[in-house]
Write a structure and sequence with these properties.
Low-confidence stretches: none
Distance between the termini: 57 Å
Shape: elongated
Number of helices: 3
Strand content: 5-15%
Mean pLDDT: 86
Structural class: alpha+beta
Order of helices and strands: EEEHHH
Length: about 100
């Protein structure tokens, strides 16, 4: 029996336990660190648009002037994923 050490991708805590399975059959984990912003996570996502580093790249490319289709093509994700992520990160009203 081989034990695979699992740590939270956000806070790097090893205080993690299995929390069932996703719809695709992948193991879901829950972080028990009370200071961690992330509640549950999957180690290997099927869709790359779910990865935090890809979400950060979407924002960085938008700030550098890349269009939605260009960003989607470069990161190999759906344009609707790009739009959804940019809407989440929209500027607050009143600031420009």
């Amino acid at each position: 029996m081989v034990l695979e050490p699992v740590s939270c991708p956000t806070c790097q805590s090893i205080d993690v336990f299995r929390h069932g399975r996703s719809a695709e059959g992948k193991s879901r984990y829950r972080c028990l660190n009370p200071d961690c912003q992330r509640n549950t996570f999957i180690l290997n996502y099927s869709y790359q648009g779910r990865l935090p580093k890809v979400k950060q790249q979407i924002v960085e490319m938008a700030l550098n002037g890349s269009g939605i289709r260009d960003t989607a093509r470069v990161l190999e994700i759906s344009p609707s994923t790009v739009i959804k992520e940019l809407k989440k990160r929209a500027r607050p009203k009143g600031s420009q």
